[in-house]
Design a protein that fits this description.
- The protein is 52% helix and 7% strand.
- By secondary structure, the chain is α+β, with helices and mostly antiparallel strands.
Amino acid sequence: MKIYGDSISGNCLKVKWTADFLGLKYAWIETSVLKGESRTADFLAMNAAGQVPAVVFDDGRALAQSNAIILHFAEGSDLIPADAYARAKMSEWMFWEQYSHEPYVAVARFQVLYLGKPVADLEPRLVERGNGALQRMELALGQTPFLVGEALSLADVALVAYTRVAHEGGFSLDPYPQVKAWVARVEAALGIR
């Protein structure tokens, strides 16, 4: 199996972390978004969306979108709760991550870290929504150690990717002590730094 990913991308890293956690064998193909490597003819033939991460399985089938990939990888593992409601809650968090967290926290990080934009020049709505996402997580993590109860799930993998580097986009985690503690728990569980 080949995983095409950019090591600066939380969406790509969550695929790598899931594969590593599950002990899957793969070749990592570093694919720089900043250099346009996901827009070459060869890459677009594999993934017409021109985005990383993308996986090509040994049988030649390809799969894209980080959360779809990690769901596929983790099928039948403890990263997906056995209880139907808990599974649905995991999916709820994963859908929310792509719609209400990543577009703010990750976008601010990209603009500051890779485009050199001063934090003070970020669009106020971007900052407000990013902090709102972190606050929602803070409230949830005040109730349980992981997003879906007592055990690590793909919801945690999906959301830790950009939360752990939120400071690179100007978001301090100091006002969110539950989130900070959760980041440490998830990093320890996944063996990442």
